Amino acid sequence: MQWASSIEDDRDVPVLLGPDGSRYLANDPAAARALAAAFGRELSLRPEGNVQHHDETPLHLVTTSSLAALERLSGDAVDERRFRANIVIDTGAERTFHEDDWAGAELAVGGEVAIRLGKGMSRCVMVDQPQSSVSAEPKTLKLLGTHNSTEFGMQAHTVRTGILRIGDVVTLR
Fold first, then answer.
1. Range 38-59 average pLDDT
2. CA-based Rg of the chain, rounded to a whole angstrom?
3. Are residues 103 and 128 in the same domain?
């Protein structure tokens, strides 16, 4: 099964596409029945609330300073992969959440790329979950909630495309 987006009856409703070509609106009870049959267990589809997700913005970035700040708070090394960022910017090892003040700014990366920064990325329990070669860390979200309003990293959008290279100079404008 896979998802496709659709605009039906002036509503933006996801569409479930079955391997046999069947199509179900996500809010149709038949979609949940089709999923349950495909997975061999009872499943339901429900609308989601206002929680922001990493995949709701085209780009997500974090800085080495924020990683260092989280390491200071946790007392342990923090693996940058835990946050699934598209871009990690080397801002040094100063232990501060630098990017919290960058919302609305633009980043020039290398000689080609420009990125518009949005608001901070609200985190959920996924940052505590194990991932490929990254162990579970059940205190990450609690630390971010206590010390940084559960935010870590920035939402971002591409203003000007181009090629990014490891080591490119990043300039905040």
1. 75
2. 20
3. yes
pLDDT for 6 beyond 50: no
Q: What's the CA gap between 168 and 155, in Å, rounded? A: 20
What is the DSSP secondary-structure string of 80-92? GGGGT-SEEE---
**Structural domain boundaries enclosing 81:** 54-172
User: Mean pLDDT for the chain?
Assistant: 86
Q: Are residues 99 and 160 in the same domain?
A: yes
| Number of structural domains in the chain | 2
Asked whether residue 51 carries a pLDDT value surpassing 70, the answer given is no
Which residues sit opposite 16 in a β-bridge?
3, 24
> Does residue 62 sit in the same domain as residue 8?
no
Whether 87 and 121 share a structural domain: yes
Residue 27 lies in a domain: yes
CB 157 within 8 A of CB 115: yes
The CA dihedral of 92, 94, 97, 102, to the nearest 10 degrees, is: -50
- CB of 86 within 8 A of CB of 102? no
pLDDT at residue 171, as a whole number: 96
Task: Check the CA dihedral 45-49-54-55 and report its sign.
Answer: positive
Q: Which of 77, 162, 152, 85 is nearest to 122 (CA)?
A: 152
What is the predicted pLDDT for the residue at 53?
Answer: 55
- pTM score of the predicted model: 0.69
Give the type of residue at 35: L
